[in-house]
Amino acid sequence: VLSDMGCVYSLGIQPGTVVENNVCHHVWSYDYGGWGYYTDEGSSDITIRNNIVYNTKCAGIHQHYGENNMFINNIIAFPHQVGCVPGKSCVTVAIRSSQHPPGSGGGGPFSSFTFERNIVYISNGSLFLSTIPTGFDNMTFNNNVYWSTKDHANLTFPPSQHPTTFSQWQAKGKDQHSVLADPLFVNPMAFDFTHLQNTSPALKLGFQPIDTTHVGPQTDKGYEDNRNGVFSVEL
């Protein structure tokens, strides 16, 4: 029914706002969009932590020129491109930064966020998309784990217009302590992202496993079981 929306959508400056302990999956849209966690139109000063998102039509995380947001200890997995509209830049990508060229209005080329201790786990497509070449220049990345189940040897990093290697990305001061490595989920093909093997490189970087036991609706008797604590959204 809707387009250009997300499972968790924010709009505007929101100091002190925290989005945590959500599970979003199978997020589709009628036309353009279908994001997981979507900080839209200048959303700023928001902390998004301890969340899981998988099987999104487009990016698991999409920031539209916001500032000072924090993405901490999240899992972004299996973005899809099913139903994307040609020419709308709706590609299979995990993390998207949308900004506007200088002088074009719409917020201009300004955006910033911190992205730390996250796991990005894809099976196809790319890790990043930026709408302008400087789209990730003001972002801080560190202590993350990146992995592709199909093509991990050829993962590329920003800018999208001229992709770089991981070592080139690090030479810019990004992801200095991050790794390209299998995070060692126990059963990711069953969409179980709550359990990591003891030797997971993510744990060594400070990632904290996300407990979904108390995610979702509550009853007078307490929390529903975690099967009811997920969001499957069709926009």
Present the secondary structure layout.
Elements: E1 6-20, E2 23-28, E3 35-49, E4 52-56, E5 61-64, E6 69-72, E7 75-77, E8 93-98, E9 113-116, E10 119-122, E11 126-130, E12 140-142, E13 145-148, H1 166-171, E14 179-180, E15 185-187, E16 192-196, H2 201-204, E17 218-219, E18 222-223, E19 231-234
Parallel strand pairs: 1-3, 2-4, 2-19, 3-5, 3-6, 4-7, 5-8, 6-9, 7-10, 8-11, 9-12, 10-13, 13-14
Antiparallel strand pairs: 15-16, 17-18
Write up this protein.
It is a single chain. By secondary structure, the chain is mostly beta strands. It has 2 helices and 19 strands. It has helices spanning 166-171, 201-204; strands spanning 6-20, 23-28, 35-49, 52-56, 61-64, 69-72, 75-77, 93-98, 113-116, 119-122, 126-130, 140-142, 145-148, 179-180, 185-187, 192-196, 218-219, 222-223, 231-234. A hairpin with a 4-residue loop joins strand 15 (185-187) and strand 16.
List keywords for this structure.
mainly beta, 7-stranded parallel β-sheet, 235 residues, 8-stranded parallel β-sheet, globular
Describe the sheet with the most strands.
8 strands, parallel
First-last Cα distance: 5 Å
Radius of gyration: 17 Å
Proportion of beta-strand residues: 35-45%
**H/E element sequence:** EEEEEEEEEEEEEHEEEHEEE
Enumerate how many helices there are, as a single number: 2
Classify the secondary structure makeup into a structural class: mainly beta
The geometry reads as globular
Q: Roughly what percent helix?
A: under 10%
Instruction: Enumerate the spans where pLDDT stays under 50 for 5 or more consecutive residues.
Output: 222-229
Number-wise, the strands total 19
Compute the average pLDDT.
Answer: 87
